[in-house]
Write a structure and sequence with these properties.
The complex is a heterodimer of chains A (115) and B (111).
Chain A (H helix, E strand, L loop, with lengths): L4 E3 L2 E4 L5 E6 L6 E7 L6 E7 L2 E5 L7 E4 L6 E5 L8 E8 L9 E2 L3 E5 L1
Chain B lengths: L2 E3 L4 E5 L4 E3 L2 E3 L6 E7 L6 E7 L7 E2 L2 E6 L4 E6 L8 E8 L3 E3 L3 E6 L1
Parallel strand pairs in B: 2-12
Antiparallel strand pairs in B: 1-4, 3-9, 5-6, 5-10, 7-8, 8-9, 10-11, 10-12
Classes of the chains: A mainly beta (115), B mainly beta (111).
């Protein structure tokens, strides 16, 4: 296992288009997190899954954002009708335990640029 | 709501010297976890060290140690014998059911 994998690494899209990102967590990690990070800032929580169940969504996550984790394996994050303010790094992390006191492993992120 | 504050946007240190990065947080909880993460340029976030609030002993990982002051809600990171590979953004984070992050401190290592 090579760690958390995110695809694509970079995405440039025109405003108004839909985009989808994929995250493959480390095998058998139960928890999967999505964060958004803008330049010069710390990550902001978007949502997380315990296996296939989406347990929490941030108020930052507008109805244009949706995330899934079918079968509790990989996850996708879709942004519909993208806006320039959506430009950011989208980070995925997974952890093995039920509680975040266990180490969270991060992917390299997907950098989205909306033009 | 819990908040995490890192008051130093940038710090620099001479190679082989010691540097301390500051972090304060606000919470009404008594039991929680605190973390320091490192994010090298164009690379993924890596856990540096973690502290459990119910443990009074400060966590240590090789050259990295923390000064955890629960009453003051302070959680600083000390890096001893700084190396060029330590150059990165360092983020302090508080765990509730999800990680709440500070804005980060950019650490520059001078050769």
């Amino acid at each position: 296992d090579t760690g958390v994998s995110q695809d694509p690494r970079h995405k440039i899209t025109k405003r108004g288009q839909n985009v989808t990102f994929r995250c493959d967590p480390i095998s058998e990690h139960n928890r999967l997190y999505w964060y958004r990070q803008t330049l010069g800032q710390g990550p902001e929580f978007l949502t997380y899954f315990q296996n296939e169940a989406q347990l929490e969504k941030s108020r930052l996550l507008s109805d244009r954002f949706s995330a899934e984790r079918p079968k509790g394996s990989f996850s996708t994050l879709e942004i519909q009708r993208t806006e320039q303010g959506d430009s950011a790094m989208y980070l995925c992390a997974s952890s093995p335990g039920q509680y975040m006191n266990t180490e969270a492993f991060f992917g390299q992120g997907t950098r989205l640029t909306v033009v | 709501a819990q908040t995490v504050t890192q008051s130093q946007p940038e710090m620099s240190v001479q190679e082989a010297e010691t540097v301390t990065l500051s972090c304060t947080y606000d919470t009404s909880e008594s039991d929680y976890y605190l973390f320091w993460y490192k994010q090298p340029p164009s690379r993924q976030m890596i856990l540096v060290i973690r502290q459990e609030a119910y443990k009074q002993q400060n966590a240590t990982e090789n050259r990295f140690s923390v000064n955890f002051q629960k009453a003051a809600k302070s959680f600083s990171l000390k890096i001893s014998d700084s190396q060029l590979g330590d150059a990165a953004m360092y983020f302090c984070a508080y765990y509730d059911y999800q990680l709440i992050w500070g804005a980060g401190t950019k650490l520059i290592i001078k050769p």
